[in-house]
Specification:
The protein is an alpha+beta fold. The chain folds into two domains: 57 residues, Structural Genomics Hypothetical 15.5 Kd Protein In mrcA-pckA Intergenic Region, Chain A, CATH 3.10.290.10; 231 residues, Pseudouridine synthase, CATH 3.30.2350.10. 19% of the residues lie in helices and 24% in strands. Strands 5, 6, 7, 8, 9, 12, 13, 14 and 15 form a nine-stranded mixed sheet that branches. Helix 1 packs across helix 2. The N and C termini lie far apart (53 Å).
Length: 309
């Protein structure tokens, strides 16, 4: 066991976070798993107040490595520095491994590239800050260290991190509008989400771009949010056989996370653009879209009032 001696009265989690140079979330996991003692006694809560002279003992367990699937693809990196990277995820790739997922995931790709976060609690971790669906392509930000992960996760919670999506619809949008309807698991089909009265609040701003090309800004991050909110107004994204017609010629869901914006840990404001993949471009069929999907922030600012409650 490693030891520290408290030099003043303060919270245990704050004390260890400063001493071990890691996030409080990581410290909380270490404590919950029984790897921390105060004066020889095990504790379960990080909020315990230390007294001057208290002896804090802690143990760092070995990281349990999980099986890695063979990666036969690469993912474009849009931005990278010592703290984070932003990738342009292709459609068809799952972000996180799961028992039902048989193919390599974004996490497997990160392992192959040797991107990993340190983890004091003994579990292998990777810096996925947010998720996008398997069939959705586009910008995904990944933290390279625990402090950056916590910093970015807090922005996701307080809504200062945001994403703009573009999509192709079965029918064009006639005007910009806001959908503010709660979402939960569909009680009749567990594979789908739906508008449910007592569900979690969900808000999306939609604007038309050109013909059947539209864009969306998320104010919340619910599963299938854009697809469910579009379904509630009688629209569906081309290629979406879950919420649209079962028989379609489009081979993928035409939904792309075009832009992500957030504040870097160094204080700099970043806005990263994810170029369209060829499969999306091919579906545009000559639509003069290029200049109209740039500066999405400016376009959405014009209609922000529609989502003000």
């Amino acid at each position: 066991m490693n030891k520290f001696t408290a030099s003043k009265a303060q919270r245990l989690d704050k004390f260890l976070s400063e001493k071990l140079q890691t996030s409080r979330n990581q410290i909380e996991q270490l404590i919950k798993k029984g790897y921390v003692k105060i004066n020889g006694s095990g504790i379960k809560k990080g909020g315990i107040k230390l007294k001057t002279g208290d002896i804090i003992e802690y143990e760092i367990p070995d990281i349990e490595k999980k099986e890695t699937k063979k990666v036969d693809f690469d993912i474009p990196i849009l931005y990278e520095d010592e703290d984070l990277l932003v990738i342009n995820k292709p459609s068809g790739i799952v972000v996180h491994p799961a028992p039902s997922v048989k193919k390599a995931t974004v996490v497997d790709w990160l392992k192959a590239k040797e991107f990993s976060l340190s983890n004091l609690a003994g579990e292998e971790r990777f810096g996925i800050v947010h998720r996008i669906d398997k069939e959705t392509s586009g910008a995904l930000v990944i933290a390279k260290n625990n402090k950056t992960h916590e910093f970015l996760s807090n922005q996701l919670k307080d809504k200062s991190m945001g994403r703009y999506y573009i999509f192709l619809l079965n029918h064009p949008l006639k005007e910009a509008f806001c959908v503010d309807k709660p979402i939960a698991r569909n009680p009749k089909n567990r594979l789908k989400m739906a508008i449910v009265q007592n569900g979690r609040n969900a808000k999306t701003l939609f604007i038309p771009i050109e013909q059947n090309l539209g864009a969306a800004k998320l104010y919340t991050g619910r599963t299938h949010q854009i697809r469910v909110h579009l379904n509630s107004i009688g629209r569906y994204i081309l290629g979406d056989k879950t919420y649209g017609k079962k028989e379609q010629n489009t081979k993928r869901v035409m939904l792309h996370a075009k832009e992500i914006y957030f504040t870097h840990p160094n204080g700099k404001k970043l806005s990263i653009i994810a170029p369209l993949f060829e499969d999306f471009k091919n579906e545009l069929k000559g639509t003069p879209y290029e200049t109209k999907i740039n500066n999405l922030n400016r376009k959405f600012t014009t209609f922000e009032r529609l989502c003000k409650s």
